[in-house]
Amino acid sequence: xxxVTQTAEMRAAVGETKKQGKSIGLVPTMGYLHEGHLxxxxxxxxxxxxxxxxxxxxxKQFGPAEDFGRYPRDFERDKALAESAGTDILFAPExxxxxxxGYLTFVEVEKISDILExxxxxxxxxxxxxxxxxxxxxxxxxxxxxxxxxxxxxxxxRQMVKDLNYGIKIVLCPTLREPDGLAMSSRNxxxxxxxxxxxxxxxxxxxxxxxxxxxxxxxSSKIVAGMEKTIRESPHAVIDYISVACADSLEEIPAIKTGxxxxxxxxxxxxxxxxxxxxxxxx
Amino acid sequence: xxxVTQTAEMRAAVGETKKQGKSIGLVPTMGYLHEGHLxxxxxxxxxxxxxxxxxxxxxKQFGPAEDFGRYPRDFERDKALAESAGTDILFAPExxxxxxxGYLTFVEVEKISDILExxxxxxxxxxxxxxxxxxxxxxxxxxxxxxxxxxxxxxxxRQMVKDLNYGIKIVLCPTLREPDGLAMSSRNxxxxxxxxxxxxxxxxxxxxxxxxxxxxxxxSSKIVAGMEKTIRESPHAVIDYISVACADSLEEIPAIKTGxxxxxxxxxxxxxxxxxxxxxxxx
Lengths: 283, 283
Prior knowledge:
2 copies of one chain form a homodimer. Helix content of chain A is 38%, strand content 22%.
């Protein structure tokens, strides 16, 4: 595995790779890698000749009151894990390399950036779209792999790729979970022991919703009410939102129809840790 | 010369060109080609193996009260001119091909998009940056050629290329002028005979400014006052702005210092036609 920290060197490495006629698969991450990330790298490994994993904690996608400063980092461990999962080139630039003095340009995907997560995290998806556009331009991949856990992020990036004619295939990988169902996330390390126990409420509520739908429930308000009840059993859990939406547009739907692909998603704060999760249901 | 109207076909043609190891030079235009455009194509012809000229009247860079609907168009003539100047591939997509139903993504270059032209044409440079980002992604050029007449547009695009890591060389070509000094522009056809005579006021005022600076004037307010006086001699001319700015940042400067590269630019309405022009002065 080759480690690259400079944009110019990364661009040159991509040029060489392209000259050899090799396809490039990109796996953008913020590091502190867990099995979920590794599954993305392993997936890319299966179809791309050259897998580029990026590690960059992107300040532009954190709000001023958010956890950019304390976001967990362990570069030496990440390096070993990225290599073991099959990374060919690890691109890990510094903040100043990605956003030098006088940086001014942002990519905005309207509408889908403003709902759900976007309502609670202003400018979050603007930061995401911008850094992904930059990484696309630096690494010029044929395909890029993202996790289903960040479903809205994937929707924003898919829209950007389509609108800005990137011609890059966006591949989604299923969410990996701890044995008790908690979705893997670098932020899970924030959870104190009691909070960690309560954090299973997200997945339990999603399974509850899935069972409701399987048993014939079609009204979103009933599904949301059932999920709220499940989560309220955890005394430290505070719901930011629960959404029943069209999986494509992320527009919320009052009632599910047969044939719909539905994304049920939620954000819940457990103490000071904010967790998200979702489930895709084809009805 | 090959004519392409579909994005997918354009992308495939670019893929073939790249496979042959050829460099690509892009000349983005809104059509109704004049000698200024042709000089850009001829310039690209000198350093690129494959010259892609695009003709697309981009609705996203026109305000609601602006001239999108009546912007002059003559595709058959453009086709012949583009070919004669050395275009290899002419890309001329329809609006629906570039902005299909449900289009949501925009590129914004902050600060330099909001001054000068941006003050009078809200969202203009957002439309420019967006369409150029799209054209860059579709045609993946090594270099792109723009005219010095649209100096602020060039500054916005240079900033975008740097910030979003496009790795594309931006080449500027000097403004071509009619024998009486009027900068060539597709919009000059709007001018009635009397307005056409008065339109030389822009260039005369810029030459006047240059002479003032050559004669030692260093105060921007004096230079602007002199230019205003020159332009007021034309009864139908209304000044939108006159700016003495740093050529790089486009930030206005109260006084010129030795060694400065200064951009003096202006926008003037003659009747219902809005004209822009500028001059670069190294002091």
